Amino acid sequence: MWLHKKETIKTSYYRTFLLLIVVPILIITLCSIAVIRRMVKDSAIQSVRRAQDNIVSTLTSEVKDVSLRLSHFVYVNDNEIMRIASKTDTSDVSQRYHYTELLTESFNYAMVPIQDILSAIFFMKDGQITYMKDNTVLSISEVKASAWYQAALAAKNQVRIGFYDTNVTNYRKNAYSLTVVAALSPGRDVDRDENIETIALFMTSRTGTIIKNYNREQLLGSTMLLSPDGEVLFDTDDAARLLPEWESSLWEKSMFQYRVDAVSYVSIVSREPETGCLIVSIVNAQALMRSFNRAALIVVGITLILFALFYRFSSYFLRNIAEPVHAVVEGMEQVERGSLDIHLEPAGQAELRTMVHSFNSMVRRLKSLIKENEEQQKKKHEAEIRALQSQINPHFLVNSLNSIRFMAQVAKFDGIRRMAEALIKILSTSFRSNSGFYTVKEELEVLDGFVYLMKIRYSEGFTMEYHVSPDCLDCLVPRLILQPMVENSIVHGFSELMDEIGRIDLTICREQEQLQFIVRDNGKGISPEGIKQLLNGEGMHQKNHTSVGVVNVRERLRLNYGRQCELNIESQMGSYTQITIRIPAVGSTLRVSLDAQKAGRIMRKGEER
């Protein structure tokens, strides 16, 4: 006994050391590392942000500049340049040469000789092209198929911007230059001759040079230019292979982290406001944290100092932890042996008292759950027994009805044949044991047969109207949940109608994730006491089949869906009765899963027997 206590105290001692010394030190260390890591990472990200801000500022300035230049070129001197350009669209060589010279002179005057203007092109509607300054190396079909060209055609008199990742003229061949193109398709008010389809102005962008310079610095990562829909416009480092799969929601973020080939990368995103283009910088996550390693050494030194706290707290917690912990351990051993009649008195420190209270609460909750589960299983077992008892020699009944149907068919008694077919369908559904669920469409087919039989029985004394939403037909429902409700309306609701014809309206619809069934009749109604008795199953052992059916449906819904289902009855004496059922909307693709679960439950019960 003394040795056992000695071992328990020793265990408590090491537990105290772990919880009050090691754990706090580890938490402090991890928090310090996390703070330092965050500071280092934020600093590196801010450097990338500043670089991107410079790129965005430069690109925005260039886009505005080229747009203003093109607008000035088009609208200067009351569209004089447009009138001259329109006259170059002629088959007369001398006239074309004359107006081209005038156009070149006007272009040089309007643009002022600037090195970054590469070319200006007039695309005529008849296919002719007039170049200013330099010809492009781009094919005409390629230009006209581009997004910026088509966007300009779609929006008359509005400037549209495009980009090329190489030089577009022979003026300077550079594999990784960026060219900005501004295009405008003039309307009739600008091009009165209506000869010009589009004007395009190509300009060398300094943004490409800035991006290439930033890409030389490893800490700034690899920067590229993307279109608003994710198309790569400029990428000097072939970093596009490191981009994740395009998702618009992902690229709306200013920063996100992902992995490619087991390497972690951070993507930092900025958006250029004029064109919506994305400036994306991909940085290796390890490169961001190089300076972090040095700071981590300082944190390790602080961690060693914190271990001195052990000498102050060890003896105190040895006295206040041993006994409460030992009591909890003994209580857990009793629970493990199956004894739930246990209650521990709280003792020791506040944390330990909380632990004891939690233990006692857990035991009480466990007892309650076991009792609740036993009652649930008992009720479910009784329901299954009632279902099995209702299956009295199904094959004999179905075969007999088939014989009657055959004889009626031979004798050409169509009424008897249709009654037998309807009854066969209802009995086959009732006796079906391999599936507790089927679709709303199948439920309605069975209900049609039942209504047909009841109309014959009651001499067409009622009508039935269906209001079914098509998106509900493939949803799964428990078998035979509508037939008892309709039977209740016919047998009970119309029992005191005189000359008036009974009417039943069945509405099936979806409300979000819920499937709703509404059965409404114009019968005599039910009193509030009668509704209460009907829902509670009072009078089930009397000769009241409809009461049994409603209670049976209610129990089956509760067993299958728990609190996710509702069965409500509203009625007004002498006016109407309305039964509403709400269950979760489950697609027919889950039928196999539901059937497999039910089969598993039946097998387990068979093994228990």
Which value, in Å, is the CA radius of gyration? 42 Å
Total number of distinct structural domains: 3
* CATH architecture term of the largest domain: 2-Layer Sandwich
Report strand %.
15-25%
Average per-residue pLDDT, rounded, comes to 79
Structure description:
The chain is an alpha+beta fold and 609 residues long. The chain has three domains: 19-208, Beta-Lactamase (2-Layer Sandwich), CATH 3.30.450; 310-388; 432-608, 2-Layer Sandwich (Heat Shock Protein 90). It is 54% helix and 18% strand. The strands form four sheets. A five-stranded antiparallel β-sheet has the order 2-1-5-4-3, sandwiched between helices. Strands 7-6-10-9-8 form a five-stranded antiparallel β-sheet. A hairpin with a 2-residue loop joins strand 8 (255-260) and strand 9 (263-271). The longest helix is centred in the N-terminal third of the chain and has 86 residues, at 2-87. The protein is flat, with a radius of gyration of 42 Å. The protein starts with a helix and ends with a helix. Residues 1-6, 540-546 and 590-609 have low confidence and may be disordered.
List strands and helices in order, with pairings.
Blueprint: H1 2-87, H2 93-111, E1 117-124, E2 129-133, H3 140-145, H4 147-154, E3 160-164, E4 178-184, E5 196-205, H5 206-215, E6 222-226, E7 232-234, H6 248-251, E8 255-260, E9 263-271, E10 278-284, H7 285-288, H8 292-306, H9 310-336, H10 350-389, H11 394-410, H12 414-431, E11 437-439, H13 440-457, E12 462-468, E13 476-478, H14 483-493, E14 502-511, E15 514-521, H15 528-536, H16 545-561, E16 566-572, E17 576-584, H17 591-608
Helix pairs in contact: 1-2, 1-5, 1-8, 1-9, 9-10, 11-12, 12-13, 13-14, 14-16
